[in-house]
DNA sequence: CTGTTAGCGCGTTCAT
DNA sequence: ATGAACGCGCTAACAG
């Protein structure tokens, strides 16, 4: 597939002294007849270096386009100014926005971001964690994989004292800061809304019973039904990460059970439902009303077909990162704050603009 | 906003010898009465270490949960098994998929991925590049910022010989491998389609004349109009990265110029157009037909309102990464292949299923 | 104010 | 088959 040419451009040596090897403080020191440490301190603008020397050093550094070696510095200082973000997948629009939020804060703090996808696979999740244990990052931001039931593989992190913040898909058995939205309350609220607009037979599409968000949303869903007993029937439809399979399953349910409402636990299932309705020949929202958590962009496209609970994904990313940096900065020895829980405000949005 | 508790769990020392400090080969060596170098070699499965010693070393390493220090090893080996991805923004759905593709290949090659957003800002772009010059990554995958007109800030990379591959938003003045889709041909083809279904006055929404994709698409657009002279009028509407501003601009155009077709250079502008039509009271595709490059997911939601050219974003990510790794592996000294151009096949999709 | 020294943790020479 | 020693590039303690 790739087609290679072989034009190798031969640039002339321009600004550097000898060959094109990368320039180090050692070279600067030699060039200026200074000690290595002096150059180092000059570059970090230490108070104990004379203005003239600083001037000379920074001038030469700029001229030679000196760039500090991040690996050497991280090794020496034992901190890397780098955090890791571990998420199930990014094709899910929700996580795109979260990452955006995280990166915004990281950029502000001059931190770097390593990104890892688990593809909803616990095995992969464990591998990534294992690698990160080697001191590669100062902290971790994480959202659990859908198949993750046990949290054994996270124990080393807790024991080693590596700062970690969970967001969205959290673990209740782990004693670590978490950032989530109020899934229970907004699911309850939105389900009530579905009933208010006439739904009497609602199908709940579950993505995975191992996911905290799924459980809480289902819980809120059930609570809403119990709040008004006898008002509506419910059905639990177990789905998976296999979209094609979900599609078939949903079509089948639509035909055989004929629900007039669908509560999709995650956005992807809502979109699949959207297509399933079209395939079966049902019109939205006339025949079937679909409810889901989703982001603003997708919601705007689907509106008014869907009752959408908009997740403040960008803000959640920012919040999670903020908590993590708080831990990093306050860290003394091996202790830091735990049990931080931020419940972001929910924005609920649909054709009739309900608010929570 | 954050609410902190202070439960600090005190875990007992379990498997390690002394305190909970991270375990190094030095400790393993001391524990086993071996030289550091022996342990090092045993862990990398060197042929000159006896099976018994290897056995003992790996056993203890596993027991103490030893993890090599990535920074030390990178410093020593002068390569980091890490690549950087520099993109304008990720909220743009297109880049989400690209990253997914990149990460898939990186994971396969056991590489790590640092991610940087330029937020369409050339200044930021330059800063990131500058940092990366310090030997932090083995290679770079990059898509240029919309405001980037000059490529001066990329010169040091070329001079230093840091492997880099551009994708999607490339620079024509830079002598580096690129991966793009065939923007000219597919834009031409799709525009022809617009005319075939009856459009006679088409507005082209330009995102930035500095962007290669914008130019090529506009070029293809114009070519299609020239192919059938007198068939349709065209209008050039300059847009920006400010969505609100774009919205107003498009509404104004819709009212005053009343085009019956819109060619949006990027997905975001298509969505904005979609909303603008709704605001002005025009129905899609009856009154106005919108054409755009977009990803499958968004396209599926907007179908059949939009004539969509689906970009193989995931594949583009994979291709770009593949080319980069090719460079990394073949690298000897400071030379490698240049001018690699992969033109991914385009998939064109809309209500009437046209193919290119 | 500046220089000397001593590592950070790992891989690689050179000896044995 | 194993050990001793050195250095990747940088920071920090300790002199002077």
Automatic annotation (TrEMBL), chains A, B:
Q: Which CDD domains match?
A: HTH_LacI (cd01392), PBP1_LacI_sugar_binding-like (cd06267)
The UniProt GO MF terms for this protein read: DNA-binding transcription factor activity; transcription cis-regulatory region binding
Swiss-Prot/TrEMBL keywords: DNA-binding, Transcription, Transcription regulation
Record's SMART domains? Answer: HTH_LACI (SM00354)
Ranges for domain HTH lacI-type come to 23-77
Q: Which domain of life is it from?
A: Bacteria
Q: What is this protein called?
A: LacI family transcriptional regulator
- InterPro entries linked: HTH_LacI, Lambda_DNA-bd_dom_sf, Peripla_BP/Lac1_sug-bd_dom, Peripla_BP_I
Q: Which SUPFAM superfamilies match?
A: lambda repressor-like DNA-binding domains (SSF47413), Periplasmic binding protein-like I (SSF53822)
Would the keyword DNA-binding be found if you checked this record's keyword annotation?
yes
Q: Indicate whether Nucleotidyltransferase appears among the record's keywords.
A: no
């Amino acid at each position: 597939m790739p087609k290679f040419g072989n034009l190798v451009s031969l640039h002339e040596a321009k600004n550097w002294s000898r060959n094109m090897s990368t320039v180090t403080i050692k070279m600067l020191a030699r060039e200026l007849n200074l000690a290595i440490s002096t150059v180092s301190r000059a570059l970090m603008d230490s108070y104990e270096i004379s203005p003239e020397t600083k001037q000379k050093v920074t001038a030469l550094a700029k001229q030679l386009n000196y760039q500090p070696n991040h690996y050497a510095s991280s090794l020496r200082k034992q901190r890397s100014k780098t955090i890791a973000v571990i998420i199930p997948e990014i094709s899910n629009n929700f996580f795109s926005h979260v990452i955006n939020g995280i990166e915004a804060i990281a950029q502000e703090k001059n931190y770097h971001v390593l990104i890892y996808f688990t593809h909803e696979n616990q095995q992969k999740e464990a591998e990534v964690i294992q690698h990160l244990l080697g001191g590669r990052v100062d902290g971790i931001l994480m959202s659990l994989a859908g198949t993750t039931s046990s949290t054994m593989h996270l124990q080393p992190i807790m024991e080693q004292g590596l700062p970690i913040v969970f967001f969205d898909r959290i673990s209740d058995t782990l004693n670590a800061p978490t950032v989530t939205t109020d899934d229970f309350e907004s699911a309850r609220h939105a389900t009530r809304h579905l009933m208010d607009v006439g739904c009497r037979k609602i199908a709940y599409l579950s993505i995975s019973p191992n996911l905290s968000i799924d459980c809480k949303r289902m819980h809120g869903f059930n609570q809403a039904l119990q709040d008004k007993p006898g008002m509506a029937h419910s059905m639990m439809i177990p789905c998976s990460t296999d979209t094609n399979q979900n599609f078939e399953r949903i079509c089948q349910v639509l035909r055989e059970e004929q629900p007039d409402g669908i509560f999709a636990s995650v956005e992807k299932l809502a979109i699949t439902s959207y297509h399933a309705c079209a395939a079966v020949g049902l019109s939205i929202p006339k025949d079937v009303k679909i409810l889901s958590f989703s982001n603003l962009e997708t919601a705007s496209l689907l509106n008014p077909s869907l009752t959408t609970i908009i997740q403040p994904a960008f803000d959640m990313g920012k919040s999670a990162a903020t908590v993590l940096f708080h831990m990093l900065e306050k860290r003394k020895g091996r202790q830091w704050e735990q049990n931080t829980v931020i419940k972001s405000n929910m924005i609920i949005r649909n054709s009739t603009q309900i608010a929570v």
